[in-house]
Design brief:
Two copies of one chain form a homodimer. By secondary structure, chain A is α+β, with helices and mostly antiparallel strands. Chain A is built from nine helices and 14 strands. A seven-stranded mixed beta sheet of chain A has the order 1-14-11-13-9-12-10. The interface between A and B is large, with 90 and 90 residues.
């Protein structure tokens, strides 16, 4: 009998450290307070909460406060106009005859998003750049360029700054996203705020979180859970033997620009998985007004890939897959007939609300 | 006899807290190490340093390190292309048929750029937004929209966050620059990184720092020295009686978007005065490969406006005018015949290098 439960295998993932507004909103930990459900035993009403349907926490409240104040505050006199503001991975802008642009900002704060004993400075620069570009990839756009605001502690040497810059430059090279400017401040902790502009291909529109339709498949492009396993291994201080791929996934993620472009003309909605599959699926479900059903059977290969790391860390592979973030995979929806080769089907879109796990 | 000296009335302004790369570079304190010069008594060779010609300090070195690493690191595959990268107030981008865009990022860090006992949270939001938009104004562009990355300390209440958002919203309203998205993180100190896109009017080009020509006039649009007087009054803890205008100038600066647009078709170069007249004139002189001569006589009305505050603070009005930053005036160059009504002539452009003060 197929059973469905909202994040049934999950344990609390910890407080979300980062919450996006506007260009990228709703990345908080999902609500796991609801009772277990199964398709046979329980009725599922639209009003009931399920995993991923209601982001929580202080950052989420902060965004709601700001959204209310900022959303209707002003209108530009420029010809380039916002088409989409607060509520997706990136804002969307268009000029009368220019290309459609997507635009995001992402922050990386020492002691909050990273620790320097877990990452080299090259890793820090790389990660910050890929994390920001991932928002552009999730909109089905290609990066145009980036700017970076750096806060540098006085203890950082010129050689260390070079390492940071080399990480940014290597990421910029891989992503074809030149860093064309920025700003440097002094401050007690190392911080990067990276803003990226992207361009939607001609005759295409930006992919948003809001287009999923009942009947669509749910697609995963990339890995989930590996980066979380790597981070937890570093956190736990366990030997990293056999966990190299996980640690590398966390230290050197890859924004999936090519995959995002491959979704153009095929996907109905898309989001990048930075907070975990359930959390980000919840944002997509909410924005689209649908239910997303994760099928455990179809997650099989994902779980197999996580099995060894899960054992080493004393966690379940399913937990890592459902709640582990920062792999920057893409989660998309679309009709089966239009599924691109890069996409692995892991579930389906139904009428309703929330994120559901269908077990065998 | 007209005498010229590089920043002769100046005292050290203190270490620059903020240094811009790329979108906005070279805002460090100017070099004041050179000897006094006068037009009659000393020869001025191109190789000699003068005030404002060589930004210094750690931030400046940081930018040079990053510029070398990032400038040639990659090329975008998008149609929207960077026309100007590291080295001006903002980067410049253009698509084949789209409008020319300018793009900047600016940071505001508690304990570095502001103290919360000197500013209300509304002021903090207002200042951060105006400071970022000022870079767009200096390029002769109108703002399109902004994104903001916020780092919020856990002690910040929802009511306090609302105050911050209200300051941003009020600035957005005044500037016709909607804040359409962003990102929220937790962290120990309040920080804002604001990125702004601007659009150059049709059939115009962005104003840069690099177009000043010998024979041009030097123009000032807006006040200088008032904000520095206000900040120093707060810093010194003196009574603010009679200093209200100065404190307001520091707490609530105004990006001069209308003035920037008025310079279109008239100015040959432009920069915003965030680090002080001598410092920013130095950046413009260097980018243009010219000497800028400030004429003390023409600064008369500026100095009169600063006289009262200077007395109260035990400083000279000339010092405040030359070295006080954060008023966000615009400093531009252009032919006398094309000087807009908003511009006050304060000097001239000559062949050579550096910034010079011509006394009566």
């Amino acid at each position: 009998m197929a059973r469905r439960s909202p994040g049934r295998a999950a344990t609390p993932r910890g407080r979300s450290q980062d919450e996006r507004a506007g260009a990228s909103v709703e990345r908080s930990g999902a609500d796991r307070s609801s009772a277990r459900r199964s398709r046979a035993g329980g009725s599922r009403s639209a009003g009931e909460r399920s995993a991923g349907s209601a982001p929580r926490g202080r950052e989420w409240q902060s965004i709601e406060v700001l959204r209310g104040l900022l959303a209707t505050a002003s209108t530009s006199h420029a010809r380039t106009r916002p088409l989409l503001g607060i509520g997706d991975d990136a804002a969307i802008l268009a000029a009368p005859r220019g290309p459609t642009l997507v635009w995001t900002i992402d922050g990386s704060v020492e002691g909050v998003h990273f620790r320097r004993d877990w990452l080299s400075l090259q890793d820090v620069g790389w990660r910050a750049t890929h994390a920001a570009v991932s928002d552009v990839a999730a909109m089905g756009a290609r990066p145009v360029a980036a700017l970076c605001h750096l806060v540098l502690p006085s203890t950082l040497t010129a050689a260390e700054l070079k390492q940071l810059g080399r990480g940014q430059a290597a990421a910029a090279q891989e992503l074809a996203c030149p860093v064309i400017g920025g700003n440097v401040s002094s401050g007690p902790r190392l911080e990067l705020a990276t803003t990226v502009l992207g361009e939607v291909p001609p005759r295409r529109v930006a992919l948003t979180r809001g287009g999923a339709r009942p009947g669509d498949e749910l697609w995963l492009l990339g890995d989930v859970g590996l980066a979380a396993a790597g981070q937890r291994a570093l956190q736990a201080g366990v030997s990293l033997r056999g966990l190299g791929a996980c640690v590398a996934a966390w230290r050197r993620p890859h924004a999936r620009v090519t995959d995002g472009l491959a979704l153009q003309g095929r996907a109905t909605a898309c989001i990048d998985v930075s907070d975990g599959l359930v959390g980000d699926a919840g944002h997509l479900a909410r924005a689209s007004g649908v239910a997303l059903v994760l099928e455990q059977e179809r997650l099989g290969p994902v779980l197999v890939a996580l099995a060894g790391a899960a054992r080493r860390l004393g966690r379940s592979a399913l937990e890592l897959a459902l709640w582990g973030g920062e792999d920057y995979a893409l989660l998309a929806t679309g009709p089966t007939s239009r599924r691109p080769a890069e996409a692995r089907p892991i579930g389906k879109v139904e009428a309703g609300a929330g994120v559901w796990l269908e077990t065998d």
